[in-house]
Amino acid sequence: MGTRGLILSSALLLLLLAQPLLVFAATPPFACDPANPSTPTFGFCQKTLPVDKRANDLISRLTLEEKIQQLGDIAPAIPRLGLPNYKWWSEALHGVSGWGRGIRFNGTITAATSFPQVILSAASFNPDLWYRIGQAIGVEARAINNVGQAEGLTFWSPNVNIFRDPRWGRGQETPGEDPLTASKYAVAFVRGLQGDSPTGERRSEQLMTSACCKHYTAYDLENWKGNSRFTFNALVSTRKSSAFLLPQPHGSYVRSSSAQRFVSCSVNLIYGAIGYAKSPEEAVADVLKSGMDLECGDFVQKHGGSAVKQGILSQGDIDRALFNILSLRIRLGHFNGNPLQLPAGDIPPSQVCSKEHQDLALEAAKDGIVLLKNAANLLPLAKSKVTSLGVIGPNANVGYQLMGNYNGPPCKGITPLGELRNYVGDTRFEQGCNDVACNATAINAVIQLARSVDQVVVFMGLDQDQERESLDRIDLVLPGLQDKIITKAAKYAKRPIVLVLLTGGPVDITFAKNDPRMGAILWAGYPGESGALAIAQVLFGEHNPGGRLPVTWYPQEFTRVPMTDMRMRADPATGYPGRSYRFYTGKPVYEFGHGISFTSYSYEFEAEAVTSIYLNTSLAPRATADSDILSYDIASLGSDTCRYLKFSATVGVKNQGSMAGKHPVLLFSRWSSSEHGRPLKQLVGFQSVHLEAGESTRVVFPLSPCEHLSRAIDDGTRVLDKGSHYLVVGQKEHEIRFIS
Fold first, then answer.
1. N- or C-end of the chain: fewer Cβ atoms within 10 A?
2. Per-residue pLDDT tens for 381-435?
3. How many CA atoms lie within 13 Å of 382's alpha carbon, on the beta-carbon side?
4. Peptide bond into 158 cis (omega under 30)
């Protein structure tokens, strides 16, 4: 692997841009104080100068040692220039977090709104919601900064890796397994977090905060059977990479919203555990020459000077990296003087944990919850008919189980058990298992409770002791004896039970899916600080669930596939089943996009929809290198032809039921066959609509065949196949033929 390939595949990606610093209880540190007589002589302090000139002026004033020390995540102060220290590493995956170094909850502000873990928010398939979550987090981060509790406003979020393997411990942090969803999530969240408009227009020369999309392509393994994320050599072909993380054209969505920068947290590994570099100095030279701007760590700070002395690293390489990170700090407002006099300087502490943000957290949790099963319309429950409620399970009465990882201290906390007691006065509880691992049970107590109440709700699933950073799962079934507890409760209950699953990754619950005594199943992810209320509102019909699974739920037999097998496409010759809804040929427990409702929706393609597209081009279709299918090379078609081919598909959607609801409309495309490695189908668009009972609407999907209907062949080239393509929504299909 070339040096640049190594560095980029061992780096956190995409450092974006941001806005100013401010004050309330304590003034946050800032540079370019007007009271300092030197300030007028510093070009980097002159707000009227372009960012590039200011950055270059500051670089010109730094010594070599000062330059090198700015390249770690803790950048020390430079008193002679009036520069305070800066801590680059902060986290805001689904709320401002205390993980990292830049944020403290030890003063006026002691908590921040904890939104649902990303995998649940993704299930809403609603970019507007994702944008508003990012926007709220950005505002709260500024408020924390304004009271002097932040030493940095660069957040290493979101995580937009593809959730390739269901056992991955960090899959919960991602928007799921689909590249289009991941890229649209990244754009919406980043624009909100940084203070841009939903369409990307800059609302200020300074941004609210800075986002950093992570991680490197094909990262989706922590520590599986001795294979560590730090040293595992993920071999991914050109074709496979096009089916991985943000493949073209979907990656353009992310690039359009970001000023891309590179951050690495593994420079020491390049010399140490990986052994690619022969010395620490060589490792530092490799990463900086390959485009890294900043290290999460201090390896560069320790060895950069000696790398220069050895002649393998130039000041030009250092200055290139410095230019990028100092330009970012200028855009954050760090060199614009008194933070109180800058944009966002008036955001008060009351904006943290505000009612608006807590309502948004509740909305996000409700919109993400997925109703997997509802036999005989068991749900919603009627308060008048449930006079006694039995709540069972280790996930029912532990508030932190609702948060997921990379969470901050929440504004409020109530467990599902506590919230359900607000709905049914006679609510009784039995934990059933000693904890989520469930290696010790109280079966008799579970049976007794199940027999004694009108309705049983069981809370099972996973927690951060089962899946998290540094911990992958071995199995896809529920931990320990959870299935035994569920089955016993269902056997002895007076009526079919409700099963609520709190998990990040998918679980094989075939036993519950097929058991008529388990009448309803909800997946609630890790729903955040308002998750308990969201679950209760769904159970009792105050909210009509509309979430749809952003990942395939595989059967336990999938664990025969090594996590280290990076292939996406199925291989019938060897029995390899493939991965994700695009290529998996096995029978899933629940498929990507599954989710039902308390109502039903119907679809119809517009009668005058496009049926044939003529390629008025002198370019003749050719058989691809990997098949006899006649196809057009996208690059050869050119941008003008691709623009000419664009069209819109319009789908009529009607709420056929008696209850209003939000409903994500998912539009897929498929080919006439999945031979020669073509996907079974792929998502080409989605929109969330709200429909009253009986209401109809039209949903328009703008489509570009060169982007949405193309595929990758063996060498990674994208091609558009001649002949029939099918647009699919629900059970409805619409054929489109490409004719030369």
1. N
2. 999 999 999 999 999 999 988 999 999 999 999 999 999 999 999 999 999 999 9
3. 4
4. yes
Does residue 171 register a pLDDT over 50? yes
Are 31 and 335 in contact, with CB atoms under 8 Å apart? Answer: yes
Q: What single DSSP character describes residue 382?
A: P
Residue of 687, 674, 684 whose CA lies nearest to 709: 684
Produce one character per residue of 303-332: b if its CB has 16 or more CB atoms within 10 Å, e if not: bbbebbeeebbeeebbbbbbbbbbbbbbbb
Answer whether residue 565 is part of any domain: no
| Inside any domain, residue 370 | yes
Sole residue written with tokens 């080919």: 671
> CB neighbours of 199 closer than 8 A, spacing ≥ 6?
none
Residue entry with tokens 């649209």: 184
Backbone φ and ψ of 428, nearest 5° = -115, 150
Tokens found for residue 250: 């979907």
Q: Is 718 found in the same domain as 611? A: yes
pTM of the model: 0.95
Q: Is the per-residue pLDDT at 251 higher than 60?
A: no
Task: Mark whether 699 and 555 lie in a shared domain.
Answer: no
**191 in Cβ contact with 197 (< 8 Å):** yes
Distance between CA atoms of residues 427 and 412, nearest Å: 22
Q: What string of H, E and C letters represents the secondary structure of 561-577?
A: CCCCCCCCCCECCCCEC
Length of the chain as a residue count: 740
Cα separation, 154 vs 431, whole angstroms = 41
Residues 324 and 447 reside in one and the same domain: no
Give 11's strand partners: 264
3-state secondary structure of 664: strand
Largest pairwise CA distance in the chain? 81
Residue listed under structure tokens 């009792």: 540
Residue 407 burial by CB count (10 A; 0-12/13-18/19+): exposed, middle or buried? buried
Residues 641 and 693 in one domain: yes
Q: Which domain holds residue 695?
A: 600-738
Sheet strands (E) in 503-611: 518-523, 601-605
d(CA 98, CA 93): 11
Cβ contact 185:175 at 8 Å: yes
> Is 399 found in the same domain as 270?
no
Reported in sequence order, the residue ranges of 90-234 that DSSP labels E, i.e. its strands, are 154-155, 210-211, 223-224, 227-228
Question: Quick check: 8 pLDDT over 60?
Answer: no
The answer as to whether 675 is a domain residue is yes
Hey, what are 382's tokens? Answer: 């009627």
Contact 342, 22 (CB under 8 A): yes
CB within 8 Å of 563: residues ≥ 6 apart: 165, 167, 168, 220, 221, 224, 225, 227, 472
Are the CB atoms for 576 and 565 separated by under 8 Å?
A: yes
User: How many helices (DSSP H) and strands (DSSP E) are in the chain?
Assistant: 21, 27
**Do 109 and 147 meet the contact criterion of CB atoms below 8 Å apart?**
yes
Place of tokens 């140490």: 272
Residue 639: CB atoms within 10 Å: 10
Please state at what angle helix 315-331 crosses helix 280-289, rounded to 10 degrees.
60
Q: Look over the chain and give the mean of its residue pLDDT values, rounded to a whole number.
A: 92
DSSP 367-381: HH-EEEEEGGG-PSP
Give the residue from 221, 101, 125 showing the smallest Cα distance to 563: 221
Give the CA distances from residue 437 to residues 395, 434, 465, 717, in Å, rounded to whole numbers and listed in that order: 11, 8, 8, 46
Q: What is the C-alpha to C-alpha distance for residues 590 and 378, in angstroms, rounded to an integer?
A: 20
What letter does residue 607 receive in the DSSP assignment? T
**Tokens representing residue 321 in the block:** 């990296």
Residues 548 and 639 placed together within one structural domain of the fold: no
Label the pairing between strands 718-721 and 711-712.
antiparallel
* Integer Cα distance of 380 and 541 in angstroms: 5
